[in-house]
Amino acid sequence: MSIAPIGPVGPSATNAAATPLTSSTGSASGAPGFASALGGAVDDLQQAQATSDQLNIKAVTGGLDDIHDATIAATRAQVTLELFSTVRNKAVDAFNEIMRMQA
Hints:
There is one protein chain. By secondary structure, this protein is an all-alpha fold. The protein is 60% helix and 0% strand. Helix 1 runs antiparallel to helix 2 (67-100). The longest helix is centred in the C-terminal third of the chain and has 34 residues, at 67-100.
């Protein structure tokens, strides 16, 4: 069984020709792979934080009619970040457990 390497991730990735995160690493049924799901989750987190920031700026400058919109967006961004952090921690724990296995 062969494991394909994952290409560079993030803004420091300079080689665009490397294996992208959204490559077809799915199963034979055509389902998206873990890398695609993880990339989508990062995009969703960034979008939630950007929306929260925009609404907070509008609330501070007086351009927002309902403060509840800003509060809901901030809470959504916070919960999304906590979920992403939990998934990351579980993945690291699983990796460490696999590395402790004896061959």
